[in-house]
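Batch manifest, entry 17 of 40.
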Amino acid sequence: MNVLYILSLEKSRMTYKDRINVRGIQTLVDAIQVDNKALIISGQLIKMAKLKDEWCEDVHNPEAVIRILKDSSVRIDLFSFWQRLPETAPTYDYYREWEYLAAIPIRDYDHWWKEQINSKTRNMVRKPGKRGVVIKEAPFNDQLVAGIVKIFNESPVRRGKPFWHYKKDFNTVKNEMSADPECSIFIGAFYETELIGFIKLLRTDRYAIITMILDLIAYRDKSPMNGMIAKAVEICAVHHIPYLTYTVWRRGNHGDFQSRNGFERIPVPRYYVPLTLTGQLALKLNLHRGLKGLLPERVVTELLNLRAKWYSGKDLY
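Output type: structure tokens
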């Protein structure tokens, strides 16, 4: 057997520590390298491996990955991967569930404007310009970072839960926002000289992802969010990017906002492959999605509403 192949196989069996963002905090987690791709190992009782950059990479040979994970130096109970847009038809025979993404299929800006949003949303897109807001691509520099820091520090609660980025200092924000510089596009909403909203858009080989979209609550009467979504659609159309994604489909008001702005609820298959007896039991008992996966959708929505009410009356800092 080729010596280089043996060395490569031995390296694939070894785990190491990698950094990921967990609720806004850089956290060290176990990882394993397979076919020059990083797989993150998460969970306490049930250990699950996924591609670290699954929004940007594909699993081309799942059987080979499964063999390596079974032979790794740590216990891994489940291997999970999905098919990225636009591959929505299941390709493999493994156990699968549907993951629902929020995405706008992009033909051109005019089609989005006339066919994918309604008259009320069109009025909301016009509103920022009528109220003196300028929405444009923004260079990544210290001025932009300072504006983002101000937005982060406006409120300790956003969308009914503690805001992960609240009270982060300038250097921390600059370091986090500067990730993936070669494929990032920043969109800024400016009122006079003040940044009142921004989008960080990440370009991949198949689509563009809105990795962050925020505005100053004090300026929401100017509807900067709708204007920035429109700008993101325009950028995708100009660069012939076929989809604009807003990651997964959201519940409640957030999902309503996605729908009003032309995002569609698109199902893609997510596969779960058990590698151990624990993994098999986890799938049978529906434990692979955690506690939230055991609860009916109606109960989850009610709990989220209760959480929002709780934090709205709390002084967190």
